[in-house]
Design goal:
Elements (H helix, E strand, L loop, with lengths): L1 E8 L5 H10 L4 E5 L12 H6 L1 H19 L15 H25 L3 E4 L1 E6 L2 E5 L7 E10 L3 E3 L12 E2 L1 H4 L8 E5 L3 H12 L3 E5 L11 H13 L3 E3 L3 E8 L2 E8 L2 E7 L1 E4 L3 E3 L32 E3 L10 H15 L13 E3 L4 E6 L2 H6 L4 E7 L4 H6 L5 E7 L5 E8 L2 H13 L4 H5 L10 H10 L7
Parallel strand pairs: 1-2, 1-6, 2-3, 6-17, 8-15, 9-10, 9-15, 10-11
Antiparallel strand pairs: 4-5, 5-6, 7-16, 12-13, 13-14, 18-19, 19-22, 20-21, 21-22
Helix pairs in contact: 1-8, 3-4, 3-6
The structure holds flavin-adenine dinucleotide (FAD) and nicotinamide-adenine-dinucleotide.
Nicotinamide-adenine-dinucleotide binds next to helix 6 and strand 18.
């Protein structure tokens, strides 16, 4: 029997970060993970590194270069003759990026003296965790004073469109189509639908996205969602709102999809269909009940504000618990739980988790939307600045987008920042830092921003809160 201070189950961004932080704090830590890569060998990093954040961003970047070469660079006076696409090479590059990073996690665990154990873990109660190795071999029993559940999430399935791994796929299949589908259908205009729809649209697919809700991106600020829908539609994404899929039938030449909307019943033909209707917490094979770990009504591991489950000494983080399913949220919870196990005070501010959707322009936000503040009866003032008025955006030829800063009407404290911009994922970091330090809109307005930069739009939007933007 192997004894540890902490056993972490799952080596995604929640789990491997928790294990490393625990080891940094002098605790004896092990990290168990069941993921196998395409070569059948253990691949650390979870959903994010293997089939999520990293491969999707690799393909978003590749497809963006391809798109720019054909559509943006000619306006800069750069012509490259005939532009060809080698999809095999693009996918191989993505796979190489994934391999580099998953190996990197293995190296980080090694260097921090975290024991990495490959296999599927099951909770046995009394601080015991059983690990079934891949292939043949006896299960190993680990004991620990503390166990951290970081088992992540899996795609939601819908009976109307059963994933067959060929014509009908989830996010994993959509990162590895053998050819660019001529007609690509996507169910769900959420984060995955928009990102992977952008990838294949840029590579030449005619993309149709069927979204059950009547609103586009309901979690985003209305100004940003409106702008984004306009621009993404112009880019060729055919987003059909209020579309309830009734069935999907794969056949030799593609897949026939039926859906209903306010206009009646419709049928579409696609070469491939992606189902991207959300993800759910993964507790398969874990047997939480055996250890007295309660689940909530959505099947997530129930935790208190400190990441403690209903069982003494068992904690949980990341996609397996409530909250946004984001890698950085999982990692911050992992750090906080490891620090609490080590007896430190630790805090995750769930009100300050940035969101980014990596379309082009990117959509990013932190804090609350105008609609949320209206619903809560909080009086606020809004300042916005369009990139059309930014010198840097004009120079690069990327003038779509806007920054919106929302501040408390009484105190001027920033309550939310919403960005639709070419590099919104980077711009939003300034807003997160400002809000973490309780900045007012005036604080940002009085902070010097380099010229010419896209970040000046944040400065101008903060000035606009007080009605004193200069350049618009
Ligand atoms: P996971 O990363 O899911 O890791 C859980 C690990 O636990 C897995 O390796 C799993 O095999 C293992 N496991 C499960 N059960 C057991 C068991 N019983 N025994 C042993 N091991 C087990 N988030 C972002 O912030 N930015 C992005 O750009 C982004 N892009 C995404 C793109 C896609 C296509 C997808 C699908 C997701 C994306 N996400 C993104 C979300 C992000 O991947 C998740 O929020 C993040 O991976 C959650 O981390 P986690 O550690 O909680 O779980
Ligand atoms: P999502 O929750 O973002 O979007 C799912 C969409 O599908 C919603 O708009 C929902 O209304 C719609 N939908 C649900 N059932 C439907 C049905 N039967 N027919 C038509 N539409 C339906 O989920 P996702 O896109 O699958 O992504 C899952 C999660 O992964 C995200 O919520 C996010 O947490 C994470 N993720 C993050 C990033 C990022 O941070 N950039 C990227 C990808 C995924």
């Amino acid at each position: 029997m192997d004894n540890f201070d902490v056993v972490v189950i799952g080596a995604g961004p929640g789990g491997y970060v928790a294990a490393i932080r625990a080891a940094q704090l002098g605790l004896g830590a092990a990290c168990v993970d069941a993921w196998l890569g395409p070569d059948g060998r253990p691949a650390l990093g979870g959903t994010c590194l293997n089939v999520g954040c990293i491969p999707s961003k690799a393909l978003l970047d590749s497809s963006h270069h391809y798109h720019n070469l054909r559509h943006l660079l000619p306006a800069h006076g750069i012509e490259a003759g005939e532009v060809t696409l080698d999809l095999g090479r693009m996918l191989a590059r993505k796979d190489k990026v994934v391999k580099t990073l998953t190996r990197g996690v293995a190296g980080l665990l090694r260097r921090n003296k975290v024991e990495s154990i490959a296999g599927r873990a099951t909770l046995k109660g009394g601080g015991r965790v059983e690990v079934a190795p891949h292939g043949a071999g006896e299960p190993r029993i680990l004991t620990a004073r503390h166990v951290v559940i970081a088992t992540g999430s899996v795609p939601v399935r819908i009976p109307a469109a059963e994933v067959d791994g060929d014509r009908i796929v989830d996010n994993e299949g959509a990162l590895a189509f053998p050819e660019v589908p001529k007609r690509l259908g996507i169910i769900g205009a959420g984060v995955i639908g928009l990102e992977l729809g952008s990838v294949w649209g840029r590579l030449g697919s005619q993309v149709t996205i069927l979204e059950a809700l009547d609103d586009f991106l309901p979690a985003a600020d209305r100004l940003i969602a409106r702008e984004a829908l306009k621009v993404l539609t112009r880019q060729g994404l055919d987003v059909r709102l209020g579309a309830r899929v009734t069935g999907a039938r794969p056949h030799d030449d593609g897949v026939t999809v039926g859906y209903e909307d306010a206009g009646g019943r419709h049928e579409c033909e696609f070469d491939r269909l992606v189902v991207a209707v959300g993800r759910r917490a993964n507790t398969e094979g874990l047997d939480p009940a055996a250890a007295g770990v309660d689940l909530d009504a959505h099947g997530r591991v129930a935790v208190d504000a400190y990441g403690r489950t209903s069982a003494e000494g068992i904690w949980a983080v990341g996609d397996a618990v409530a909250g946004p399913m984001l890698a950085h949220k999982a990692s911050e919870e992992g750090v906080a739980v490891a620090e609490r196990i080590a007896g430190q005070a630790a805090h995750v501010d769930h009100g300050l988790i940035p969101w980014v959707i990596y379309t082009h322009p990117e959509i990013a936000w932190v804090g609350r939307t105008g609609a949320e503040l209206d619903a809560a009866g909080i009086a606020h003032r809004t300042g916005s600045f369009p990139f059309l008025a930014s010198g840097r955006a004009q120079g690069s030829g990327e003038t779509d987008g806007v920054v919106e800063v929302i501040a408390d009407a009484a105190t001027d404290r920033i309550l939310g920042v919403h960005v639709f911009a070419a590099n919104a994922s980077e711009l939003i970091a300034e807003a997160v830092v400002a809000m973490a330090f309780d900045a007012s809109a005036e604080d940002v307005a009085r902070t010097i921003h380099a010229h010419p930069t896209l970040a000046e739009a944040m400065h101008e939007a903060a000035l606009a809160v007080a009605g004193r933007a200069i350049h618009v």
